Amino acid sequence: QPRMNHPNPPVQPAVIDDSLKIVDTPRFRAILLAVITILVVGLYFFADRLAMRTEQNALHRLAKSHADLLISFRNFYSSRLLPTIREHSDLAITHDYKDRKGALPIPATMTLDLVDEIAKANPEMNLRLVSPYPFPWRKITLDSFETEALAALQASGENEFLRVEESAHGTVLR
Asked: Full-prediction pTM beyond 0.85?
């Protein structure tokens, strides 16, 4: 009688190689758990640092945007508004405009007053304009960061000096 090929040949019992038995040992499980734990902890710290760096970069862009806006407004006031006012009126343009009737602030005073108004509306934002050559009537005391920043800016010729610091209010970008 001819032999027929069976469509499903009988399953042969699997031969387990002794080298695979290492996968099922308590030592291997402990090593695997340690590696996974290290990877998870490392990923957490990496993600935390990445989030902190992203936040600092966003704050830096926001601070630069605010500074650029103040500079643009001051330049607009100086180059567009004041010449027209001088040409068409007798208004005085002075640093003590608040004490003089019919007077307008000089650009530096206008910028300082604008910064004060912004600070009142946004208490979490602290803006300060500092100069190595303040007007004699402006009595200000620079803190250590401001002193260091002015020195670094003058020495480098750069237009930015940033530092992240801890304060009573938390971490701040200065």
From this structure: no
